[in-house]
Amino acid sequence: MSTLHRVCILGGSGFVGHHIIAQLASHKHHVKVLTRNRERHRDLLVLPTVVVNNANVHDPITLKEEFAGYDVVINLVGVLNEEGQKDRSFQGAHVELARKVMEACRVNRIKRLLHMSALNADAGRGSSRYLRSKGEAENLLHTTKEINVTSFRPSVIFGPEDSFLNRFAGLLKITPKVVPFPLACPNSRFAPVYVEDVAKAFVNAIDNKAAYGKHYNLCGPKEYTLKELVQYTGELIGEKRMILGLSQSLSKLQAIIFSMVPGKPFTFDNYLSLLQDSICKEPFPQEFGFTPTALEAIAPYYLANKQSRARLDIARKAARRDA
Ligand SMILES: NC(=O)c1ccc[n+]([C@@H]2O[C@H](COP(=O)([O-])OP(=O)(O)OC[C@H]3O[C@@H](n4cnc5c(N)ncnc54)[C@H](OP(=O)(O)O)[C@@H]3O)[C@@H](O)[C@H]2O)c1
Fold it and tell me: How many domains does the chain have?
């Protein structure tokens, strides 16, 4: 029987976190989720081995107290669009938080830390501030000898609650049908990876000594241009549209305009991230013992048919794979 762990998760209330927590709970690990708003994430409490605590994870003392008695920490906190305040900036949410997590692990003698980064994260050469700050956090964490750190670097992640394909589906639905859909960076390439596969990689890595110290790029089995992904989304939701790929300068202009719209659907930093293809040179890491799921096997369930029945089917499939 595998070891049962006490796992403390930061950023666990989000899209990826929900899937990791469900898998940890299904393996009967005890999980504590730290969140800024417990009330909003009461759904996690239905899982029998999960507790959810309100906590300011940016406060070093709180972090040290919350980590006491835990033997594994998972940090999923990430911001795509920074907001002025310190803790919501790329530096605060990625680099400074990583430093505080590392210190709180050290004080509590926690030896296992799983860290969520992003494909193309690189402190020196990342094309955007998002990617450079993610790279800086990885560099910082992997210098420590006292903690066994594993970093995960996924391409874009898809799944029923993703904010990538679902966002394009929403935009295709609300924009006028008679004009082509304007798309920035249409030739940027992605290898979307399924959220359940990312979650499985995290859970499998906990006890896997081969994963200590590693940085894993996580990609799905196939590459697509952004234009192909938007076209595919349109087909699935019955909104076949002509896609107008924007030039570099128009893509930049769209980013500048959209960053002024409430909710900032596309910022200049997002545009800079898209200048690098989000694809892997190597296959999915063998250490995790499974092959990644194709987009076409999952996306139709949640895009074409948003009924609860389709969601149930996916949950059933996931349960069968775990069995
Ligand atoms: N989704 C993707 O396609 C993708 C691809 C590559 C890498 N990643 C990385 O994967 C991680 C998880 O992504 P996700 O899609 O699950 O994101 P998400 O749904 O936005 O969840 C992130 C969670 O982090 C917490 N958080 C956000 N900003 C914070 C801040 N300033 N301080 C403290 N907590 C904060 C939030 O928890 P509370 O509000 O409960 O506090 C939120 O639920 C991120 O690090 C992201 O960069 C995601």
Answer: 1
